[in-house]
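Reply to dn_fold:

You asked what the input looked like. This is it:
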Amino acid sequence: MAKTVILARHAESEASASGVVNGNPSRPIGLTDRGREQASRLGEQLAGERADLCVVTEFPRTQETADIVLLGHDVPRLVMAELNDPPFGRFEGRPIEEFRGWLNRYGPTKPVGGESRVATVRRYARGLRKLIARPEQTVLVIAHGLPITYTIRAVRGQDLPLALAAAQVPYAVPHRLGDMDVQRAAVVLEQWAEEQEKAA
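and this is what came back:
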């Protein structure tokens, strides 16, 4: 069982710098120059720590961040789709405020792009459980703002807002959690999803 999980949001991407959403991993959206600098600083911060495994998602922005962070280090890589950003359907490539407005209006149980926010959060909980079931001692996770923010807030006992806006964790900042923290976050996410469905 993994004893330490280091979570970090990917560095700034071209989509996030433009304020648009990208929930389709096949789109070739990489990091900005500023994002590459952020990833380099994250690599410097983690230089003294040994990661036994690096988990990324299917999105190029997480993989490019990991490439920079781990430059010169031979760390096995695992793609975990459970931690992917949610699909945005007709909002793909549109301003994020349009999607947030829709989400606030229709709530967490209405699907967009084939997946509701409730389904996304349940998927994240499955991903967290897979992380702590890993045999590696230390796992570095480069993922997205939504799963990282929800996990950190769940561990801290904070609410899980639908539209993150000012609540989202910053780019390329490490958050160290123990296996029990991650386990607790998975439980909180599952409870949140169940409560949202009951309230719908």
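The chain has one domain: 4-199.
Hope that clears it up.
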